[in-house]
TrEMBL record:
Species of provenance: Actinoplanes cyaneus
Name of protein: SCP domain-containing protein
Stored SUPFAM superfamilies: PR-1-like
SCP domain location: 22-151
InterPro entries: CAP_dom, CAP_sf
Length: 153
């Protein structure tokens, strides 16, 4: 594995938070008879860089001004993929890791509760075609937790 160098420093996500949110996602997948998603460090870096742009003024968007689409963002971090998807969200939380986990899991639960035809987030979370995930969960200076979930197969 090679180390990727970027001129942008993404916000860091506490490892405990990522592990808890990934476990929550994989529990939902298991309940549907699906294999667990594997955390991908390069994909998580793409997630973190996107989160940084959203936090720094872009707002909730799948493509910020001057940013490539998800395929270009993933490839720029060395991610090999044949299919790709992304979920983004934000919500208020306290500053503790437990509060951030609760916020991120709540966002995930809202996505899992979607119903057709407006269930794109749910489809990403429960896709048989996605095998790897990148996660970034960061609290900004205003107490808002931002989450980017990136998926590839």
């Amino acid at each position: 594995m090679t180390t990727k160098v970027s001129t942008q420093s993404p916000p860091s996500t506490d490892e405990q938070i990522v592990e808890e949110v990934l476990a929550h996602i994989n529990a939902a997948r298991k309940a549907e008879g699906l294999a667990a998603l594997q955390l991908d460090d390069d994909l998580s870096r793409a997630s973190a860089l996107h989160n940084k742009l959203m936090i720094n003024g872009c707002g909730l968007s799948h493509q910020c001004s001057g940013e490539g689409d998800i395929g270009k963002r993933f490839s720029a971090q060395g991610v090999r993929w044949s299919s790709a998807g992304e979920n983004i969200g934000f919500g208020s939380s306290g500053s503790s890791a437990a509060a951030m986990i609760k916020a991120a899991n709540g966002l995930t639960d809202s996505m899992l509760a979607e119903t057709p035809p407006n269930d794109g987030h749910r489809k990403n979370l429960l896709s048989k075609g996605f095998t790897r995930i990148g996660l970034s969960i960061v609290r900004d200076s205003k107490g808002v937790t931002w989450m980017t979930q990136d998926f590839v197969g």
